[in-house]
Each structure stands twice: as C-alpha cells, then as structure tokens.
Design goal:
110 residues, globular
Length: 110
C-alpha cells in the first residue's frame, strides 16, 4: 500500500483533500467502516494498512506508547470552526506529508 494517513472521526472527511498528495493517500474512518469504533480498532486498522493516524485526540499517543508500533500526528488545535481547521491543515500540509513519508512515529502539531 502507498503511504497514507487515516483521519480520525474528530476531523471532517472533507479534510482528506487537504492532506493528500501524489505520494500520500488520505482516508477518513468513515471510508473504512470505523465510525464510532474504539480508538484501538482504528489504531489496529491503521497499523495493518501502514497508515498514520491524524487526529485531535492525544489518546492515540498513549496507544502508540503502549503498543510500541504505529504512527500518529496529533493536531493541538481544540474545537475550532471548519474554516480555521482548513487554514491550520493548509499551513501544516507539508509537515504532515513529510511525517507520513518518513519513519517519525509521532508528532504534535500546534
């Protein structure tokens, strides 16, 4: 599978297009039948498909610490309007793509 990112349900599916590139695919949990599922199910899916979890939920860093495998990017942006989230993702797009293409296990973006 190509390198990719899996957007958690706390991010809108429309944000996929803001983080995808020619070399990075972007999926949303709704694309994978994972809406409403526990974080551990999302983590296992991402691990199996070699996807980096993109989320606003720092619980995923705890899962990473416990499992010692997988990768996550946590957006430290809080509850913001969709327009502000889009600006944030556009601003950090290149960093997100670089992390997905690398072997960096975790990153907090603020």
């Amino acid at each position: 599978m190509s390198r990719g990112v899996l957007l958690d349900e706390n991010l809108p599916a429309s944000a996929k297009k803001l983080v995808a590139s020619d070399s990075v695919i972007a999926l949303h949990v709704s694309d994978c039948g994972l809406m409403g599922r526990p974080d551990t199910d999302i983590w296992e899916f991402a691990l199996d498909k070699d996807l980096v979890v993109l989320t606003k939920d720092d619980d995923f860093i705890g899962i990473l610490t416990l499992s010692a495998q997988g990768r996550a990017i946590v957006l430290q942006i809080g509850n913001v309007r969709l327009q502000e989230l889009r600006k944030f993702l556009i601003k950090h797009r290149e960093v997100i793509i670089a992390v997905v293409e690398s072997e960096i296990p975790a990153l907090y973006l603020s």
